[in-house]
Specification:
This protein has 495 residues and is an all-alpha fold. It has 19 helices and no strands. Helix content is 75%, strand content 0%.
């Protein structure tokens, strides 16, 4: 059962909000929370993967070059990354359910607005608003699931949630391709609206209580602004390379990150407690592994979508049908991996997944215009198995390594690593396009340069993944953390 919040009036004191035992009393609440999380976990990746398959059609309508086309995906990721950690902290202070509800509402309204955009500038602007809503969802969704499910059940619950994420990824290319082909690319955004409305109704009708273990703390606005500016500078720098301006923005962004860390260590209520990274090895290295994994993998679907349509001549429908192979395997493997991470070392399962991913990326290096389709599908299946084995155990390790008062920040940090990795992945793709192809529309005369760009990208991504295997393995034993929810170092909660 949900208990009423006890207001202590003492800033930072942890109120008793939700029972996380395995008794029948809170079984119904667990199911409701997981159902809502599944709906929210589905629509955001569905949107992203469906947009990827529709990019050539969007580019043709608005006459966008390759770099501008990349910004349709990147603007969404950039906005999400800027707001994820701040909204995770806001959720810890003011209530995770409240922020989650606002996030679903904003995302759904922005999706509706996307069906009516008249120009490139407005399209990218609304994608930024969508990213803000997504940050509010992902900064709280995993935290709420973690708050409700105890350590012995957490991996299974997170595995089911991540399966919903992968189901969104699975259906995105296929349904996105069908809808783009027959209903136009704008229809893919309309799908988010009824799902979002359903989630809002469930939250208001069924989800009682609130989660706000940091109620009374002051929100760190200055740190949030420094963090956001640093992220924007780095990503904008990637988009303008190889110009000197691009390198200057990246350098400014790195300095901003350093300044952010120094500032956060000096204030009493930071938006991100740096000690979570400096004193909790499992938390720090698990997040690093997530950053590397997403950096090496996110742009793969984007690049293969363009390759299948530009160089191999497939329609959006057929390209989506081919690309569905990868996330279908992810959805099948993820709940199994989540259950395994409740019983054996999460780092072993996650590292095996990262290694499989590295092998799949290595095979993509040799992709050519004449590569047999069956060869590509086998590689996608291998990548899907790798992604599925990595994500659930790694998320379980992150969320189980901190005290519950940090769940919102930990969820936001995990989501930030995902989004920063995705942005870095897209940034690498954009940088390679800028260097090899230039700011031109991808036409048949540029297909050889485009294929060369793919080779360079997959070489870098393979190297990233190999490094990620080592980062995943050296994080230390996490079995005690998963069982108790207490950080390994001295078994004391980071505060």
């Amino acid at each position: 059962m949900v208990k009423e919040m006890k207001k202590s009036g003492v800033p930072g004191e942890v109120p008793e909000i939700f029972r996380t035992d395995a008794s029948p009393d809170n079984t119904a609440e667990k199911r409701i929370v997981l159902t809502i999380a599944i709906l929210a976990g589905f629509i955001t990746p569905f949107d992203g993967s469906a947009v990827n398959i529709a990019l050539p059609t969007i580019g043709a309508e608005f006459h966008m070059n390759a770099i501008a086309l990349s910004w349709v995906a990147t603007a969404y990721l950039l906005s999400s990354a800027v707001f994820l950690v701040p909204f995770g902290k806001i959720a810890d202070i003011y209530g995770r359910k409240k922020v989650f509800l606002y996030g679903i509402s904003i995302f759904s309204l922005a999706s509706l607005a996307m069906t009516m955009v008249p120009s490139t500038e407005i399209l990218i602007g609304i994608r930024i608003v969508q990213g803000l809503g997504s940050a509010m969802i992902f900064g709280t969704g995993v935290a709420i699931v973690t708050s409700v499910f105890p350590p012995g059940e957490r991996g299974k619950a997170l595995g089911i949630y991540i399966t919903a994420v992968y189901l969104g990824l699975s259906l995105g290319p296929f349904l996105g391709g069908l809808m783009t082909q027959y209903l136009g690319w704008r229809s893919i955004f309309f799908v988010n609206v009824p799902i979002g409305i359903m989630a809002v109704i469930l939250i208001l009708w069924k989800l009682k209580g609130e989660w706000a273990e940091c109620r009374g703390e002051k929100f760190d606005l200055t740190g949030s602004v420094i963090y956001g500016a640093a992220v924007v500078a780095v990503m904008y720098g990637f988009s303008t390379l190889p110009d000197f301006k691009g390198a200057a923005f990246i350098a400014a962004g790195i300095l901003g990150v350093i300044g952010f860390a120094l500032y956060e260590m000096r204030i009493p209520s930071p938006v991100l407690d740096i000690r979570l990274l400096t004193k909790n090895r499992i938390f720090a290295l698990s997040n690093l592994a997530a950053l590397i994994n997403y950096s090496a993998t996110f742009a793969v679907t984007f690049l293969l979508s363009l390759d299948l349509q530009y160089t191999k001549g497939f329609t959006p429908e057929h390209a989506g049908f081919i690309l569905i192979a990868q996330p279908v395997v992810q959805a099948m493997v993820s709940p199994i991996a989540g259950r395994l991470s409740d019983r054996i070392e999460p780092r072993i399962v996650a590292s095996a997944g990262m290694a499989l991913t590295a092998v799949g990326l290595f095979f993509l290096i040799f992709l050519t215009e004449t590569t047999p389709l069956w060869h590509l599908v086998l590689i996608l299946l291998l990548l899907g198995a790798g992604f599925g084995l990595f994500s659930s155990p790694n998320t379980n390790a992150i969320m189980s390594s901190v005290d519950k008062r940090f769940y919102g920040v930990a969820s936001g940090m995990n989501g930030t690593m995902r989004l920063l990795g995705q942005m870095l992945s897209m940034g690498i793709a954009m940088m390679i396009f800028a260097v090899v192809i230039g700011p031109v529309e991808i036409t048949p005369e540029y297909h050889s340069q485009f294929v060369s760009s793919l080779h360079y990208a997959f070489i870098l991504f393979t190297i990233f993944c190999i490094i990620g295997v080592f980062a995943s393995l050296v994080r230390g034993k996490t079995s005690s953390v998963v069982r108790t929810g207490i950080p390994e170092a001295g078994k004391k909660t980071v505060r």
